[in-house]
Structure formats: structure tokens, C-alpha cells
Design brief:
Layout lengths: L28 E5 L9 E5 L6 H11 L10 H14 L11
Antiparallel strand pairs: 1-2
Length: 99
């Protein structure tokens, strides 16, 4: 899931420094927590430089989202998968395929 926010540069006041400089509108940025940060306050801010088309926006967002899929091969892997989900309070979903 990707949350989308709108910032009106004329009505919402100065842009937070974490977002960097805004040189024109529309400007699109992706903000995500840094991977190995100790808190959720540290962010990576990535500028969007593709066309303003829904398909390009979707590709940009999906390419930068974390991937939570992991391959389970056999009962031992499944038990590790269950333990990890339980430890972190994560929902579990299994997808079965022939490949």
C-alpha cells in the first residue's frame, strides 16, 4: 500500500526540510524510512522524474516499495516463516504455485 499526500505550496506554508528543495510544481517525491535506521524518523526522499502518467507513477511506487515475499521450500522453511510472523506480529499469507 502506498499513501499519497497533497501539499499545496501556496496555502500549506514552508515545505519541511526533510523533503528538500521544491523548484516548481507539480513536484512528486517518494518518502520512505531508511532501511537500517534505528527510528522511523530517518527518511529517504526520492524525486520522481518520469512522465506524469498513472502507469509510470505505479511503476515508480512499486519498484521502490519493500518486498515482503519469501520463498518457502519445505516444512523447515515454513516453520521459520511462522516463527518470524509470530515474533513481529505479521499476518501470514501463502501463495502456492508450480514454479
Amino acid at each position: 500500500m502506498v499513501k499519497v499526500a497533497y501539499w499545496d505550496t501556496e496555502k500549506s506554508g514552508p515545505v519541511p526540510s526533510v523533503l528538500g528543495q521544491i523548484q516548481g510544481t507539480p513536484t512528486i517525491k517518494l518518502v520512505r524510512p531508511k532501511r537500517k535506521a534505528k527510528t522511523n524518523k530517518q527518511k529517504d526522499v526520492i524525486d520522481y522524474n518520469m512522465e506524469r502518467k498513472a502507469s509510470d507513477l505505479e511503476t515508480f511506487a512499486l519498484d521502490l516499495m519493500p518486498n515482503f515475499f519469501e520463498r518457502v521450500n519445505g516444512e523447515e522453511d515454513f516453520e521459520k516463516f511462522q516463527k518470524k510472523a509470530k515474533k513481529y506480529g505479521l499476518p501470514m499469507m501463502l501463495f502456492f504455485s508450480e514454479d
